[in-house]
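Sequence, please.
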């Protein structure tokens, strides 16, 4: 495994396992599969409704807690200072742990300043080893980070070969903030796995288009959290540390960048309205 060092000195694996849209009743078994493959960074969120499954899998795995890097995110309905503190304690209970390795604001809506203040308090109490944000696009991140005593350690954003977040990454570098790629396969959109550039370069290394894409993102200094429920794909995604891409290959993949989202835009009012309509499925967070 390769690691990055966050701006507070904490080491974070560059490859993890995401559990977005995995049913609560299936999460434990899938996370156990991922742990057996070798994954130690597990990424969940309050809104996913599957923190309990992650916690059970970690507890049953036999791997010491210090061997894991657990991430969860605070949902927008837990927006005030006190709500956020209560929700963090709820996440700790569900994850069967006394600390979260990375605690993120999930969405840039509501009182995210109050959320972050509470997260900072949790950090100082040892309930979180690092704190950061998710889905904070460039202007929102810059306007937010400049006011913080604790600079965000991570910004988890949509990032894949079709949206490489070049401008945002330059902004994050000024604060030493690590970018983490959600949907590193763009959920298979735009025939991602059939892209001729990824396939051609992958074949030259005896790798798949998916492995090539992950290797590109890691060499671009991103942390990646691919999600799959198939163990053979978990294993495939994990086998990306035995090859590297040369400069010409990196440049060829870089040329795939479209510089725009394949998902909802945070500059669209409808996105905020849709997110606010989503209840927090972890009811005891409130």
């Amino acid at each position: 495994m390769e690691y990055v060092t966050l701006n507070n000195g904490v080491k974070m694996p560059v490859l993890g396992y995401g559990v977005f849209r995995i049913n609560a009743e299936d999460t434990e078994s899938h996370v156990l599969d991922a742990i057996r493959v070798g994954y130690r960074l597990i990424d969940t969120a309050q809104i996913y409704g599957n923190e309990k499954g992650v916690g059970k899998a970690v507890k049953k795995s036999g791997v010491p807690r210090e061997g894991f890097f657990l991430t969860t995110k605070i949902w927008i309905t837990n927006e005030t200072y006190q709500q956020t503190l209560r929700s963090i304690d709820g996440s700790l209970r569900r994850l069967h742990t006394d600390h979260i390795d990375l605690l993120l604001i999930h969405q840039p809506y509501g009182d995210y300043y109050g959320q972050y203040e509470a997260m900072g308090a949790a950090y100082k109490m040892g309930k979180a080893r690092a704190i950061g944000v998710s889905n904070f696009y460039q202007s929102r991140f810059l306007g937010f980070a400049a006011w913080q005593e604790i600079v965000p350690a991570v910004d988890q954003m949509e990032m894949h070969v079709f949206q490489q977040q070049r401008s945002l990454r330059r902004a994050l570098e000024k604060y030493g903030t690590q970018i983490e790629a959600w949907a590193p396969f763009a959920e298979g959109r735009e025939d991602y796995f059939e892209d001729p550039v990824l396939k051609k370069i992958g074949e030259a290394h005896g790798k798949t288009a998916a492995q090539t894409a992950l290797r590109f993102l890691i060499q671009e200094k991103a942390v990646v959290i691919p999600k799959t429920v198939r163990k053979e794909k978990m294993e495939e995604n994990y086998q990306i540390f035995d090859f590297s891409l040369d400069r010409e290959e990196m440049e060829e993949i870089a040329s795939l960048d479209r510089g725009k989202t394949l998902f909802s835009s945070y500059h669209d009012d409808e996105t905020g309205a849709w997110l606010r309509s989503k209840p927090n499925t972890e009811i005891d967070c409130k």
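Strands lie at 3-5, 11-13, 16-18, 41-43, 69-74, 102-105, 131-134, 154-158, 178-182, 223-224.
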